[in-house]
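Re: beginner question about structure tokens

> Can someone show what the tokenized structure looks like for a real chain? I only ever see the sequence side.

Sure, here's an example I had lying around. Input first:
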Amino acid sequence: MRIFGKKGSIEILSALLEKGKLYQDELGNIVGMKGGQLVDRIKELKEYGILDWEIEDKFGGKKWIFLTEKGKKIAKYLIEIEKIMEEE
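And the corresponding structure tokens:
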């Protein structure tokens, strides 16, 4: 899938796997993305069923981003693949 070659995709998965769930702006700060680029990547990952979000009303509609079960499995495999690729 091409989505994993796009900027920030693996970083987003890694951050969410480590933290559980994050507000969209927190996620952006961690992975170094913001604005339309971050929103587009989140939407693409959601379309593949890798992550999802929920809107929290009490904080002015802030969006929690989290991995689905499918996303957690994929994230674990991708991180392992990255580790193998970095081995010497």
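Each token stands for a local structural state, so reading them left to right follows the chain. The longest strand covers residues 51-56.
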